[in-house]
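Hi everyone, sorry if this is the wrong subforum. Our group has a chain we'd like a structural model of before ordering constructs, and none of us has done structure prediction before. Sequence below.
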Amino acid sequence: MNSNLLRNTIRKYSPGIKKVEYRNNAIIYSDNEQNKFVAKKNKNNILDLYRYLNSRGFDYLAELEFCNDEGYIYRYQKDILTPNEQKMSDLVKIAALLHNKTVYYVDVTLDEIKETFEKLNNKIDNTFNYYDDVITMIESNVYMSPSEYMLARNCNSIFSCLNFCKEKLNEWYEIMEKKSKKRIVLLHNKLDPNHLIKNKNNILISWDNASRDIPIYDFINLYKKNYSSYDFNELYREYKNKFPFLKEETILMYIILFIPDKIKLDSSELKNTIEVSKLCNYLYTTDKLFMENETKNSKIQDNNINE
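Answer:
Right subforum, don't worry. Here is the predicted structure as tokens:
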């Protein structure tokens, strides 16, 4: 891919290339005049995407210098030093703005709703059965390893989360079966602090996986990658101030977040202990996010009733 990009895209725009650096899915290079550029493969009709976003008033984009069917080029922007928490906060606000600018409604059928329900219900059941088998195996051992003991001690939290998901999934279905529309937004799908370039203007890069779907998935992906590094209670509040989720969207988000990943125990006890520790931390952090926000919502509802 990189050699084709160099030959077919970069050389058409910049015949003279001084320095080339390969970084993930991008090529960063300098031309004869020491101007620095970024070249990427055009996987997502980037020109049409840019035109759409510009038409919606979303301009946190790198300015395209060149684009063809194979790749596109934009001028390299140096990222200024910014505290990590500040950068994440800005990223969440820009994501909320992206969703706000691109939201629209589409028809939703009962068959679609049932398909989502069955898919999530099966995932909950499979995860429950998986951990039930793992705990049964652990309890059959004469002696437990540290990772097994930690998992056994926290199995109630796992099963409690999955029971919560079952309950909330039924609640979501009862709401959705009365709906004929759902909200769709443009999702970035690769939100990461490293993809926000802080300069005189904020620039959001890496639109390769952009797609249209309900708005919760950008926040879910960002949370799962970064839950242990940032205060997502505050970040969630900042997001909701600019683009509040609907009730059914909020419920679905918590269902997806509360289904734990299946960790696999292998021969390395150190790796096992780390994985179980991560799982426990994830469940605790996610429960805290839910409880704090649900408590605030309950207080707001109570105040509205009292008024």
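For your construct planning: Residues 298-307 have pLDDT under 50 and may be disordered. The chain has ten helices and ten strands.
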